[in-house]
Amino acid sequence: MKHFVLFSISLLFFGASKAQLDTLSIDSAQWVSQANLGNCNDESRYDGKKVVVSGICLVDGALYGSQSHNIHVTMSNFPTPYGSIRLRQGDPNAQYSVNIRNLKQGDSVRIVGTLSQYQGETQLEPDLSNDAITLYKRNIAISDTVLTVGTFNDGSKNNILTTGEQWESTFVTFNDVDVVSVDPFSGNRVSFTVQDKAGNQINVGDHFTAQRLPAYTHPVTNLPGSFSTPTIGDNFKTLSGIIIHSKNNCTGATGRGYELHPFDASHYVYGPSAPKISNKKRDFQTPTSSQAVTVSANIRDLDGVIADASVFYNTGTDINDLNFTKVAMAKGTGDSYSATIPAQANGTFVRYYVTATDDSMNTTALPNSNPTTGSYGYRVRDNGLTIYDVQYTPFPNGNSIFLGNEVTVTGVVTSSGAEGDLAIIHIQEENAIAGWSGIELQNAGTTFARGEKLTVTGTVLEDFGKTALSVTNVSKTGTGAIEPLYLIPDSLVSYSFEGNERYESVLIGLYNPNGKLHVVDTNADDPASFAEWLVGRDKNDPANGARILTGREFESSTAVSFVNSSFRVKNPYPANVEKIIVTDSVSMDTVIGVLTYSFSNMKLLPRNNDDFKGINVGITSVRTYSNDAELSIYPNPSNDVVFVNTDGKEYSVSIIDLSGKAVITSSIKDNDNALNVSELENGMYILTLSNLNGETVARQKVIVKH
Fold first, then answer.
1. Which of residues 379, 398, 430 is at a domain's end?
2. What is the enclosing helix (H) or strand (E) of 367?
3. 168, exposed or middle or buried, with CB in 10 Å at 0-12, 13-18, 19+?
4. Beta strands in 5-132 (DSSP E)
5. Residue 210 maps to a domain
6. Over pLDDT 90: what percentage of the chain?
7. Residue 396 has what DSSP assignment?
């Protein structure tokens, strides 16, 4: 009898807990007032709440282009405002009685889950329970609705919340749009931008397998894609897909606005043919000041003849300067055309694009029809290509002008793949103190060591917005030294092309010129968690904190003790590294690391515990320095002379300013070595000791105060 009573009570409690959930129509879950949208707030009023919704699947679960589970559900078989929502499960190993990947278009389902927002997209994440998804019926016919690009974005792809938000996750069709840019990324993926006749633009993305290229292999099915990339100037009679939101503009975010994601090959219906430009080449990747550059391409038209083919070039980095010089392309054999850009002075930055027009006045332009948003480019160098040249771009998309090209550059290892280091390899150009000087190496095939100078050949790729080299050959050419560039955390609060794109993959030190750095937020993404936390100058001001990423394997170092409580932190943690959960009582003088970009944010990647200077928590250090030196400095602060005591060995000593420039260099051996700082300006400097092999073995902050 006791067992029966307990079972009855548990059933009653279960029923009561279910009854407490909000059972909503999708349009209730998605609805946002016009007042809120007008104030750039598109968050659902149920954000963070557990709800129950029912709807019809718009797309097969197996058609999502990655390992995650993402589909879209609509409340009726014909689109209605606010009537669709994304069903997302980021854990590919989550198990349900109905597997998301097995759901089909037209399936009627009931979902129990939590509403949240990711980069502007409202999403429903199912509970991790067996009954979170219930399948009712199958094979319900669904349809699209015809809308205009201007419903969603303006001519700069800025999202228009007041008209676009109601169609988020909806199956829509656009009529008569033209391709204005084609944007490869990650080495094997592509998106493109289309424009309507009013000039409004929208990005067409590849969330689904319909737009995956043959070079891409699906991580679940192991099948390659089959998409053929369109050409700039191509017209689509109709173009269909699901609307996704990547918020930008007045929201303060830096996404791509509303996007269209086709999920079937039939969604791309081409209109009249514009000229096709392919196999575009130039004979010198990095010309010297005595070399003219010949640009060649294959140009053809499927339903007419080529009336004009030209190269337009401009010298300078001002993307708003539209004073391009036209050079007609001469026709060669077959469909080949070429034109020559004259030789330019050493250091000149050259932008150029190629156009072709047919006898019906259809025009194609590569890389796009608007040179203010992107063009081809190169830097004239008498001494060869540099990392700066690969990383630098004047265009706000941040993409390298060498994207997809094989290049050879030289740099010094700032983070290695060795045990006790970041496990992600970066190199940085010596004596480059203004940024654009570091780059990540992928597929390097070995670990290398900090301070080694490498000459690297590889293909330039954009790894979700981060420029990297996919390495094909490496040779060691010596050793070198890279000092951090020092910034205040406020400069990295959010991504800004003008403010911090240049620091991607650069060795950075964060500091507070007026005192300590503080942990200002132990979870930068609450209520989600991605192992990122914030440091800032004011412990009561998390809004001006910079992101620190630690402990997440393959994306950051697991040789760092200081981590947050995220489930994404490696578990179990390496046995030789003391794991310490950061709290808001933690402070430090400086934290050093390589700056990276991912998911619309800049974040610092400390390499190991040595990168935390003056931290107020005791740790078991995990070092990469092979010969750590004892170092004491006094007086500190100083107004005239700093005395340096070491362990009696011979060292090179440098005092580095916050731009990374060595302002004092000397050799020391005995104790009480005096360094004259009387001519230095007030502020913080970094004193470094290097052994006879050029390895940095100690580093300490010095304050000059006259």
1. 379
2. none
3. buried
4. 22-23, 50-57, 69-74, 84-89, 108-118, 121-126
5. no
6. 64
7. T
Are 525 and 457 in the same domain? no
Instruction: Supply 220's token pair.
Output: 């679940």
Please indicate, yes or no, whether residues 29 and 61 belong to a single structural domain of this protein. Answer: yes
Per-residue model confidence as pLDDT tens digits over 46-56: 999 999 999 99
Percent of the chain with pLDDT over 70: 93
Instruction: Give the whole-angstrom CA distance, residue 700 versus residue 706.
Output: 20
Residue 563 lies in a domain: yes
Q: Identify the CATH number of the domain in which residue 292 sits.
A: 2.60.40.10
Hey, CA dihedral for 452, 453, 455, 460, is it positive or negative? Answer: positive
pTM confidence score: 0.68
Q: Which helix (H) or strand (E) holds 34?
A: helix 34-38
Name the residue among 659, 662, 664 with its Cα closest to residue 433. 659
Q: Would you say residue 626 has pLDDT above 50? A: no
Rounded distance, CA 450 to CA 436, Å?
19
pLDDT at 145: 96
Pick from 354, 362, 353, 355: which is nearest to 301 by CA? Answer: 362
Q: Are residues 27 and 132 located together in one domain of the fold?
A: yes
Q: How many residues does the chain have?
A: 706
159-184 pLDDT, tens per residue? 999 999 999 999 999 999 999 899 88
Residue 526 maps to a domain: yes
* 141 CB neighbour count, 10 Å cutoff: 9
Please tell me the distance from the alpha carbon of residue 467 to that of residue 451, in angstroms, as a whole number.
Answer: 22
DSSP secondary structure letter of residue 97? S
Residue 57 has pLDDT above 90, yes or no: yes
Separation CA 522–CA 533 (nearest Å):
5
158 located within any domain: no
CATH number, domain of 653, equals 2.60.40.1220
Residue with tokens 């932190």: 569
306-335 pLDDT, tens digit per residue, is 999 999 999 999 999 999 999 999 999 999
Query: Cα angle at 268 between 263 and 273, to 5 degrees?
Result: 160
Task: Give the domain CATH number at 413.
Answer: 2.40.50.140
Pairing of strands 325-328, 306-315: antiparallel
Residue with tokens 């981590």: 563
Q: Say if residues 701 and 684 touch (Cβ distance below 8 Å).
A: yes
Q: Are strands 683-690 and 651-656 parallel, antiparallel or unpaired?
A: antiparallel
Separation of alpha carbons 310 and 363, rounded Å: 11
Q: Are residues 694 and 676 in the same domain?
A: yes
Q: Both 492 and 608 in a single domain? A: yes
Q: Select from 345, 379, 413 the last residue of a domain.
A: 379
The total of structural domains in the chain comes to: 5
Per the structure, the complete domain to which residue 564 belongs is given by: 485-613
Residue (of 151, 389, 361, 55) closest to 235 by Cα position:
361
Q: Which two tokens stand for residue 668?
A: 């020391």
Cβ atoms of residues 377 and 315 within 8 Å: no
The vertex-123 CA angle with 121 and 126, nearest 5°, equals: 165
